[in-house]
Amino acid sequence: MLLDEDKPKEACGVFGIYAPGQDVARITYYGLYALQHRGQESAGIAVGDGEKITCRKGMGLVGEVFTEDTLRMLKGHIALGHVRYSTAAENTIENAQPHNFYYKQGMIALGHNGNLTNYAELRRKLADSGAVFQSTADSELMINLIVRAGTEDLASGILKTMEQLEGSYSLILITEKKMFGIRDPHGMRPLCLGRLGDGYILASESCALDTIGAEFIRDVKPGEVVMIDEDGVTALQPHRDCKRALCVFEFVYLARPDSVIDGLSVQQARYALGKELAREYPLDGDMVIPVPDSGTSSAFAYAMERGLPFREGLMKNRYVGRTFIRPVQVTRDLGVRLKLNPIREMIFGKRVIMVDDSIVRGTTSGKLVQMIREAGAKEVHLLVSSPPVTHSCYYGIDTSKNGELIAASHCIEEIREHIGADSLGYLSRSGLHAALAPFNPDILCDACFCGDYPIR
Length: 456
Known about the structure:
The chain is α+β, with helices and mostly antiparallel strands. The strands form 7 sheets. The protein has a 7-stranded antiparallel β-sheet. A hairpin with a 4-residue loop joins β3 (about 40-50) and β4. The protein starts with 8 loop residues before the first strand and ends in a 6-residue tail after the last helix.
């Protein structure tokens, strides 16, 4: 079991650019590098040159899929990039994105972040009407709906299709000449708009804009469609009043800490979670260590709030991705150690407070506690900067099935015994809301903590 395999996983990240005169494929390549944390199983880039769309994609990390020669082949003024982690759909090359199609008016490519909850129903209706599919991804289904609804006007087809979709989605869609950014009416998945010279950028996170030197303009509004072409940016806002439901796990774990989502800094949010954790669990210890990297900000805030030393007690191997050869059954215990190794000289004989961002199955947490003990820690206390994950997510985050969620069937004391910690504390749901109060937690989806799902 690897550390990342016991964490919630984002479905994917999307990046788009409309910039005549610039090397859009290369810029997209760098943008996808910035979004690599959102998907590490496949990567793809589609480029439009005014007459056709050329697409290249493959399994693996961005740097493994694309070479200098590949990028040189992708010429045009519009590009769409995608990195993917499979959730509902299978991990196959057929499901790698962008999806690229011919239709009545030419060519179209689409990249999707999220998950449709009425996918099966919509696919069945399309299949009954004679549609055929090459993948099991809901992105291909959306292309079918859009082109059928907008035979003469793609923008109207997008707006009509949004009336049928249920679930979460941030989409970037390109034709040979235009680019569209689309965000679901609940705003569950992030999408922002930026400027690069005379061109425009769409991206899942603002860190991708920073990476390529683009200027942040604003977040795409929930339910909004932005169209980008030679006339600039045109905003289309369908009339649909929905409860806001931005995924809270963007701030807990998924997003990069240098991103700002809907006005809230991810780094500041995690720092606030750590301060709230210190108020709820004022433990005494010799040091505070994080489970890197997403637990670092909260651990540092906890240490500052408690006046305790903050130390790097676990060293992370940053060169292990999801594509390396997994340990076989006989060496399965190597899984966590390939990612993290305790610094024995730092923690020997110490009372250690370890801060992590979340616990899903509990398998990795137990191995980490065991590693810290074997390194000579006198005590190991585990604190989690989010509430217990008790319900599965159906909106594009892989949090496992309910039966695999340890907090769905075990109380905190039972979980503590299972992982072998001297004490275990989760941030309360009220503490989570207090930490995110500057953002207005009422517009967040935290169904994984309480089962209150905003979308059927």
